[in-house]
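Case study.
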Amino acid sequence: MKSILPGIGNPAWAGNLGVRFGMTPAFLHDQHSLLEDWRHYMTRRLGVKVEFTQRDSYRETMDLLRLNQLDFAWVCDYPYLHLRHLVRLLAVPLYQGKPVYHSYLIVNARDAQSRGIADLRGQLFAYADPYSNSGYLVPRYQIHLLGEDPERFFKKSFFTWSHRKVVEAVASGLAQGGAVDSYVWDTLAALDPELTRRTRIAWKSPGYGFPPMVAHRTNVGETDFQLMQELLLGMSAEPEGQDLLKRLNLDGFSVQSPELYDSVAEMMRVFGEYDPA
Amino acid sequence: MYQAYTDLKSTLVTSATSLGSTLAQTLIPSLLHDDVWRGYEIVRAPFRERDPDNPVQPEVAMVVTTSQIIFVSSDPDHYPMLQEVRAAGRDFAQLADAIAPSEIVPVMVVEPADSERLFVAVPMIDGGARLGTLLLVYSRSALYAMFLRSALGAGLLGLVVLAILLPINWYWGQRMATPLVRLAQRMDEIPDRLPEHLEPELYNYHDELGRLFEAYNRMVEALHEKALLERGIVSAERLAAVGRLTAGIAHEINNPLAGMLTALDTLKLHGDLDQRTQRTLGLLERGLLQVRDTVAALLVEARQEKRDLGRQDLLDVKTLLQPAAAKRGVRLEVEVDVASLLPVPAGPVRQVLINLLNNAVAAAEPGGWVHCVVTSSDGNLLMEVRNSGEPIPPEHLEHLFEPFVSYRQGGHGLGLWVTYQLVSQMMGRIEVVCDEQIIGFTVSVPLERDEVTA
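After joint prediction, the assembly is written out as follows.
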């Protein structure tokens, strides 16, 4: 289905089945009205129907990409590296002006002592997702740096399948510590300060490449790749896009090279998960 | 009260069992996959909209493994995961013993002594094996508080309802019971004496009860009329008997009396009687004459003179009575509204009217009045005589028309007797009515012929 909106003199969308965009817990993906507005925005800009496919775990979105059921996805950097042969880096969000985010080690607000992962030895720990960089890979790497086995370091650990729920688990006392995406925690601090106030950031990781938007290498042709990239990059240049970015708590999108994620790849290599080939 | 508490508790257990069974089933995959977060979300589900005053809502829900370790609880601050259940408190230790057997048991309610908690333990069973236990912990004090509140609430509500109902009850009681009791009393009196009417203000409504009272009053009226009628019949019969007796005696006396008087006359005609004898004979004659007068008075006979009653006869009566009335200071009014000639015997009618007016004038107090109306209608001559004055006592009314009954100073007690006899002989009726201030006699005499001469 082809339609060209007035004012957009660009080449038309080549794919004719609509756009399938996978959304993941890389951001607060349960803001349904925001997602709906963003989807309408894309549909109008591209002149082709855009569908968002939400999944609660990275693994499910990764599987959909592998099964060719998605054209684009907003994934964590860690899944991106896993799938780097299947997907291309489309755009990287700019958060506080940079394509960078951190992992926060959070503890319950009543815990005033803990300053790092070492203080949580033998405790209960909440991970976000086994394919989350900030919510899984980073804390495990920190344990590794302590010379410990991440599988035996805690009394017990579990996954909440979302960064927001890691905050809830730590706030409720279910876990003594957890690891979250700094972007999600900061955004949550603005949206639900009651919740984040019950937790405390005990440690902040170095910066990592921000969870990127990726395009399926075979599903998305060059024209469509360009159109989508231009759409994302152009959002910060006009009011409606700016409004959406503001609600996403982002400054815009940028084009980055895959080297941005080298530090993540380095951590993966430690656990035998990255093959440079 | 104990029942209410037990009911409340059984409500709690029922609610807990249904909640627990649902939760337990849902929690099994979490337990099997060691998915703590999903388990936490499930056990926390009943607390999303927490109402602290609802005792049917548990305080805590937790999943306990077969090794008596908390897998996850809805309140991780107090019941952290991996903690041993028995470490949570003395009552928890008792509970742990109760749920320790690993065989499959139904839902268990555990109320450890000296504990303010009540536990509902729902076994989590999958594939015929017991994987763990879902524990719902309830606060007994919340249960008591709820019970007390509901008991107090019920009590207060009861009082409020009473406060509203009592006056209404009282009102209805007043309105219905009181008249009914009065009615029953009156009905009880019926065998002994004539009942009285019920006061109309006693029950002023025309509903079923009102109709009952109206019917009662109609019955009382009928009874009174019947009694009156019976009394009238008895009285008439008695008077008739007395009349026959009197007439018989009078005739028996009259015959020898006439002979004695004739003999006296004869004796006086022959003269040459000495003074003493003459005096004795005079005495005898006066005595016999008095006897004759008395007997004559008793032996009332409307002599069948054929003269019809004229209007003037009636007007004469007024003229005759006027002096006596004036002497006593009584205002006498006689209204005559009849044809000039009426087919009734003039003498007896005049006598009757004279007697009645005489009595009325005598009975009226000085300054009082006597009012007489004579009319004719429906083939009857009607004479009504009314006077002001003291009413006749009821006990006197009964014997009013009997001979030698006088309730007045100076009366010989034959006036009304004679009147009654005369009216009876003319086939008429005499009635007396008497109320507070007015005494009235009504006499009706049938006209002998239908035609009335104008």
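Observations recorded in class. The CA atoms of residues 65 and 216 of chain A lie 7 Å apart. Chain A has a mean pLDDT of 89. We will return to this complex in the next lecture.
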